[in-house]
Amino acid sequence: MTEFPQRRQRVASALASHKLEALLVSSSASIRYLTGYVGSNGLVLITPAEAHFFTDPRYATEAQQSIDCTVHVCKKPLIEEASAVVKRKRLKNLGFESTWMQVDTYDRLHKALGAGCKLDPVNGIVEELRAVKSTEEIAKIRASVLVNSLAFEKTLRRIKRGTREMDIAAELDFQMRMAGAEKPAFETIVASGPRTALPHAHPTSKQVLEGELLLIDMGAMLDGYASDMTRMAFLGKPNKRMQSLYKAVLEAQLAGVAAVKAGVAAGTVDAAAREVLKRHELDQAFVHSTGHGLGLEIHEGPRVAKKQTDKLKAGMVITIEPGAYIEGLGGVRIEDTVLVTETGCEILTPTSKDLVLL
Ligand code: ZN
Ligand code: ZN
Fold first, then answer.
1. Which of 76, 90, 280, 341 could make an SS bond with 248 (beta carbons 3.0 to 4.6 A apart)?
2. Nearest ligand (C-alpha, residue 304)
3. What is the 229 CA–ligand 1 centroid distance (Å)?
């Protein structure tokens, strides 16, 4: 028994509170969440009593065998067939995801439906449900996290003075795929020396050298689910300033993790990490938010950021990843994937948070 019918039922139940007769789902992650479809051309229409799935003939066999909705295999653009269903059902309004629908698709939809059906831009209906993970989803994220950490550990052993950032990134990607991942969850970040001060550095041909910091931010995509981890290494013996920078960020990360609990506002977790860095006069060097949810996408709800009043719920999976970046010197970020529980959180990432000395 899959979870898809239950998930679609939850969307159907949410329609009334948004005063919607139906919702057209365009986000590919949400389509996967609601149907299991992993192809590149799908559309889902949910009404209180029905679920329709639209795709093109390339996916006909797969869809007819595995998708438990009314499947429409369309020769025309999917949106035209979806519009025809909406018209047949004489729906007076239709919600659509303005974040995800292309303008061109919207134009076609608008034209096909005419004045009889009002189009309501709505966002976040499916995303809100996706933020709280089921037991099955948590198991998949756990597996993704383990594959990610395994790839990290295997790669660490191969790093030498003179290895290029891009070769380390390639090795990390290779190792995660050999361990079963479909692909990296995002472009693997490897930065060394002063380049660690760039929070989202792309790996380059720069070699990692004695006396340099090394930042690795990586995530695996396994069975559709993402993981995310950042760890730091140092080639040689770090000086006092490096050590204290590392210790301050680690202290902030631990404070963030300690603040996580169901019922706590996401902004409170962010503030806990930020407060520690402020005490170390590093708050100006912390230029991003503390974390984000992850699941079918590497970045999804909730946002663990300044002033976020949304409360964390048990079953959410989030990252805690404060950092401090000092131009010319370097940057430090430490990131775990954690599961929110009623009493606090479980850190899913098994990798040690000690600064790795190479
Ligand atoms: Zn990351
Ligand atoms: Zn992250």
1. 280
2. 2
3. 5
Q: Which ligand is nearest to the CA of 229?
A: 1
Percent of the chain surpassing pLDDT 90:
97
Superfamily of domain 4-130: Creatinase/prolidase N-terminal domain (3.40.350.10)
Candidate CATH numbers 3.40.50.720, 1.10.150.120, 3.40.50.150, 3.90.230.10; the one for domain 132-357: 3.90.230.10
User: 237 C-alpha to center of ligand 1: Å?
Assistant: 25
The structure's pTM equals: 0.96
Task: Give me ligand 1 centre to Cα 304, in Å.
Answer: 13
User: What is the 163 CA–ligand 2 centroid distance (Å)?
Assistant: 25
Q: Where in the chain is the domain with CATH 3.90.230.10?
A: 132-357
Q: What string of H, E and C letters represents the secondary structure of the chain? A: CCCHHHHHHHHHHHHHHHCCCCEEECCHHHHHHHHCCCCCCEEEEECCCCEEEEECHHHHHHHHHHCCCEEEECCCCHHHHHHHHHHHCCCCEEEECCCCCCHHHHHHHHHHHHHHCEEEECCCHHHHHHHECCHHHHHHHHHHHHHHHHHHHHHHCCCCCCCEHHHHHHHHHHHHHHCCCCEECCCCEEEEHHHHHCCCCCCCCCECCCCCEEEEEECEEECCEECCEEEEEECCCCCHHHHHHHHHHHHHHHHHHHHCCCCCEHHHHHHHHHHHHHHCCCHHHCCCCCEEECCCCCCEEEEECCCCCCECCCCEEEEECCEEEECCCEEEECEEEEEECCCCEEECCCCCCCCEEC
Could you list which residues have their CB under 5 Å from ion ligand 1?
A: 217, 228, 230, 335
- Render pLDDT for 28-60 as a digit per residue (tens, 0 to 9): 999 999 999 999 999 999 999 999 999 999 999
